[in-house]
Amino acid sequence: MTAVSPTDLPAVSTDTEPSALRRGLGVLGELPIGSTGILLGIVLMAIFAPWIAPHDPLSAVEGAQQFGPPVWGEGGSWDTPLGTDNLSRDVLSRTIYGARVSVIVGLTGTAIAGVIGMIMGVAAGYFGGWVDSVIMRVVDAWLALPTLVLAILMAAVLGPSMWNIVFILGVVYWTRYARILRSEVLSLRETEFVKLAQVAGASKFRIIVQHIVPNVLNTWLVLASLTVGVVIIAEASLSFLGVGVPAPTPAWGSMLTEGRSALITRRPHLIYGPALLIGLTVLATNLFGDWLRVKLDPRQRNL
Amino acid sequence: MRTFFIRRIFYSVITLVILATTIFGLVRLTGDPAYLLAPEGATEEELQSIREDIGTDKSLPLQFGTFITDLARGDFGTSFQNGQPVRDLYFDRLPNSLLLVAAALAFALVVGIPAGIISAVYNGRWMDTVSKVVALTGMAIPGFILAFAMMFVFAVQLQWLPVFGIGSWKNLVMPAIAVGWYFAASTLRLVRSSMLEILDADYVKLARLKGMTERKVVLKHAFKNALIPLITLTGVNFVVMINVATVIELVFTWPGLGSLLIEGIRGRDFPLVQGVTIMAGIMIVFANFTIDMIYAWVDPRIRLNR
Amino acid sequence: MTQPLLEVTDLNTHYTGFGGSRVVKAVDGVSFTLEEGKTLGLVGESGCGKTTTCLSLVRLLAHGAEIVSGSIKLEGRELTTLTGAEMADVRGNEIAMILQDPMTSLNPLFDIGDQVGEPAERHDRLRGTALKERVKALLHSVRIPSPDVRMAEYPHQMSGGMRQRIAGAIALAGTPKVVIADEPTTSLDVTIQAQYLDLLRKLQDETGVGLIFVTHDLGIVAKMCDEVIVMYAGKAVEQGPVRDIFTQPAHPYADALIRSVPKLGSKEALYRIDGQPPDLSDLPPGCSFAPRCAVADERCHAEEPPLLEIRSGHKAACWKLD
Hints:
The structure holds three protein chains of three kinds. Chain A is mostly helical.
């Protein structure tokens, strides 16, 4: 048995993992085709709506009737392929424009929730002590509340407008980030390179920005992609209930409200567009999020 | 066990306090509720009298004090629309919502647990693949889209089930499935992965070595260990279900708390909305607490710790 | 000659992976017999096939592994052809096993009484008070104090040593004829190990079970076993009475193993066997030990030596013994 030599001791690692951004770019070639395609399609639909939609979503189509049939129904025409609604507006155009609301609310709502969640989670994880306790109690309490109900309440109080909804959803959904990011930070805090930075006298702020944040970005991205779906559903639900984006702005959720009453009178065409697209979008974000999770960290199993 | 119990109660109380404060804050600080209640073009005097009515003319701390004492007394406000105490309206509708959530929970567990177990036991074979796909779509398609789809197919086209309302078990089927669907899928996933892990464990091996039949090994020895994470999941998903149920109730015109809330909003009945939200929150805190207790009862490691 | 308790003939257990393209011969032509009241040791490095041999006996092999040929006879009855249900009747009832890690082999959610009583309940159909008495007696025989109290307790409330004794009680609960102990003392404190071995010895004397003891520790073999099989890369390279093998080891590997046991008080440098155990999916031709053998020649590297009897009851597989 030889004596233990200095070269046997593990070297102290000063590397951080390559940032999520660098890794992300490298991975572009391996994106899942289905979900990415759908998501890209929705976003493009939102951006180029004025050029794609055949009619103005806000005004009645000339010469069309109320509840006009879709192209495959009796008396339908390719002019209004998905029929018209109770105000004789073209359903297809409204569906296309509806993508705007969902995309904007989905992305910004998630972003706001993400930023708040990141700040809270990192603060709780890094500073520990009473900061941690307070934040975690708030998170626990927040998670125990019925988020949608709370959102409804806030929407009712603040008044319906798209930006109010964005704000509300951001405020309601930050807790998912906070909890998970906090535990990541807790384990990161104990790693070699963070300890090294602390010993070297770097300021807390610097450590957080340089070491902690880049390393939780992976998780943050995965959470974000999974949250977008949730936020879109929340917005659609709020609009459906009448407290979301107000008329006459076309939103998939509110189109469903109109569609629902029409369903009974055997005019189901109003729901095809919005229902299909909400379902598709959420499915795509979830699949994408799943793929992202496995890609960025195969060790994480249950998020 | 005792410290566990006390600690949980303590947390629950704190949560309730935060809940009440948040709701109070939200409603009071984001604008003048009087505007919501007043008709268009109301004069300042009319607004002031409304404020006196609902008590917002007093200072904020005083309002909070009244608010809390009212809550402690069980007074959750009075509905503007019909003058009844919110609490009565709440308890009126509560059974319906509970029925819906219970049915959804039952559906989710009855479908999710066996599917998860089968998936784990037949890991890799076609039954497993099928259920994995089903679970994935279940989790990705939002409940209320499914609700619409079901409504369209089963109520409008096939006319097997009624579209609206409450009355017979037939009314319950679609709403319960719509609410429980997501949870069924996530239960399946969790049970499957827990069981896969557990079936590999030494103590399961020992059970087989004792000569226990495979059925007993899976159901008695393995499954009980899978219950623990399942109970936690149920707790989390319970809250999600309440959210989903609110919307689904509206889709199917199910007269539950969700509908009550929406009616309140539509009618600008802010005491009703506030009261219902608080009571819903209390119910959830209570439910979470119960789940924690069940958890402790199942796992002797928690139960028997001083 | 009376029928041996357990008779294993030319057992071959293979793992097939990667769609049939890779075959690992985990157990390659192992044969032995076990008599009542005797102890057989299975010795070798990790991965040599000792645990797989044991699992083959109870037919609880992992996915992808199966017994491809050979015979296992328990009191004359062939086990390899039994159905799953029939095998479940044999396990715990006629053959029992003690696992290595006491911390994970007991189910955390069931109390001791339940877990110890299960084999008796299942195989001997004991219920109620009779079952309870049986459990108490078992716990008593493995020297667990206050069995009444302990019965209602849970595994997490007990130490590793106690849990392993409970594992012993579980093994005996179905009154088996053969008990397999897979490295039962490896996870125990050194101070407890000796006690545990004494306990096993005592139980064997009392019940007359045949004991198969899997270990990598030759000291335990010397103390506990009557016969021993030294395994390497899935094959039995030497087997026979413990005394013969320890005093006159024939196979170079067995010889090296014995020499590498540290001698108390000796100032000699520790003896090491060079090299690593081989990758079973990629075995070299010829004798599996040849790459690490000090006396291997051309023939050793080319042809696999058969297991031959060199003295009465003592077999070894090596070309250099002719």
